Amino acid sequence: MSQEQIKAFSVYLEELKRWNRVHNLTAIREDRDIIIRHFLDSISLSLCFEEKGLRVEELTFCDVGSGAGFPGVPLRIYYGETFKLTLVESVSKKCAFLEHIKVRLGLNYRVLCKRAEEVEERFHVVFCRALGSLEDILPLLERLSSKYVFVMKGREPVEGYEYCKVSLLDIKESYILFLAKNR
Questions:
Q1: Is 23 exposed, middle or buried (0-12, 13-18, 19+ CB in 10 A)?
Q2: What's the number of domains the chain is made of?
Q3: In CATH, what number is assigned to the domain containing residue 96?
Q4: Which of 14, 25, 133, 151 sits at a 20 to 30 Å CA gap from 163?
Q5: Model-level pTM?
């Protein structure tokens, strides 16, 4: 990771903690926990992109239910300018934070402050993290995607679906559900 990326994550951490005191963006409060459970966990999605052979510079990405920016903003920091990102978030205070951190870090991405059900456009790759039950969110994610859907669902693989297994030093083994749509 470059010094510029490390600095961006450091600023992100401080701004997240500062905003969290007033707006309660995340229940995770300790630096180490934020770094591991938010930043590193978000970037772990890149391992799945690589495993599936995605060329990120050729695709558009949408993070549905982004919250305080996870996993979209860490992925945008990690990949740089080639990562064309839209964040969808329905909670106004979280949208305000996403706009603030975008300016503070000098990043280029869009924030759609609306419910995902109201989004009309499509993206090559749609992903989410801990958004709700698979039965409820999968049809919505599939509607927004023209190529791929990734769902960061946790510690157990979901039967009947393809998935990536992620295992890193500080992150417990987890599974990312993967769907390739007929193109």
A1: middle
A2: 1
A3: 3.40.50.150
A4: 25
A5: 0.94
